[in-house]
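ok posting inputs for the nicotinamide-adenine-dinucleotide job
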Amino acid sequence: MKIVVTGGAGFIGANFLNHFVPKHPEHTFINVDKLTYAANLGSLAEVAKADNYRLEVVDIVDFAAVDRVFTEHQPELVIHFAAESHVDRSISGPRAFIQSNIEGTFNLLEAARKHWSDGAGLFHHVSTDEVYGSLGDTGMFTESTRYDPSSPYSASKAASDHLVRAYARTFKLRTRITNCSNNYGPLQFPEKLIPLMVLNAVEGKPLPVYGEGLNVRDWLYVVDHCEAIWKVIHEGEDGETYNIGGNNEVRNIDVVKEICAIVAELSGKPKGELEGLITYVKDRPGHDLRYAIDATKIRTELGWEPTETFATGLRKTIAWYLDNPAWIEQVRTGEYRKWIEKNYDNRG
Ligand code: NAD
Ligand code: TYD
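and the output
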């Protein structure tokens, strides 16, 4: 089978390709990626040598380019990861989110409708639990929770989910959607909470916790997310949505303290010294208090279970960042430094 993987040079896409390309030589994986700041071909060094891997440097906002990919490769499956993904960037510059996440998804759906008029292909849309908005202290998101996005990022993902459902209902396109909780693991761009805190702790820099650090996220190890997507593609049903989550609800401050403890253990620095770097900074506007996924549907209908607990996955992740200084150097371009200055200076 020919499989288009959009956004394959980003965090989750690269983990997906690294995991599945070697396992499935019978499939050809075509990575369609614009290579934004968040992409890193260094994450795909091994996969790039494989016979069943291709790279197409394409902006999905360009319909002609997307159409050409469908014509040339004739994929039977699209796994759509490509998106602008960082909430804070969507606050300081929402336009790219509207373009890539909404218009980009629309272009892929249009190309799928055109090239798969016989119902041959399957469109798998990778989305987030952030479309459901914020929970209070209790409750969990199910597949029927009302959409209520808070940030330009989550609103753009919500819009893309709606488009996917509309194409399923109106044009009978074969689609599936997964809404997943916060991922962590190797290859994550260090603007996101966990890699940012790990690198700052290692370098003795302040650990900037938004607000009081009481917001809760439901953390899932990235490879568990990738396995869930593969399961939905192979065993799920058309037109269905599946929530994916790790049942690992942790307050941000506790994530940061756990990172300090593991970095201390692995690097030999005193834990107290690292915790002393914790700095409470101005909160994110519209900051969702709590996310928690009820993953009963994928667990009971498809038998998916995560393999990592937060404790085992976090340790693996931190060890990976400590062991891969060359990868970290590669992503810390001038653009990265600009972002850090813009987001954290004046945050107090
Ligand atoms: P990422 O920011 O690390 O990577 C995104 C990738 O998409 C990059 O390689 C980038 O170059 C590419 N891309 C962006 N705009 C593009 C465009 N216009 N054309 C082609 N390529 C483009 O993101 P990620 O964390 O790997 O997330 C991947 C997907 O999973 C996203 O759709 C995101 O909404 C979803 N998701 C992420 C999480 C999470 O915790 N990271 C959780 C649930 C869902
Ligand atoms: P993030 O990794 O940006 O993921 P998301 O906003 O998609 O959940 O942030 C995770 C949590 O960590 C979120 O509640 C915001 C918080 N956070 C900080 O406290 N400090 C930071 O520097 C960052 C980037 C995030």
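notes: The mean pLDDT is 97. Residues 6-7, 9-13, 33-36, 38-39, 59-61, 81-85, 100, 104, 126-128, 157, 180, 182-183, 189 surround nicotinamide-adenine-dinucleotide (ligand 1) (CB under 6 Å).
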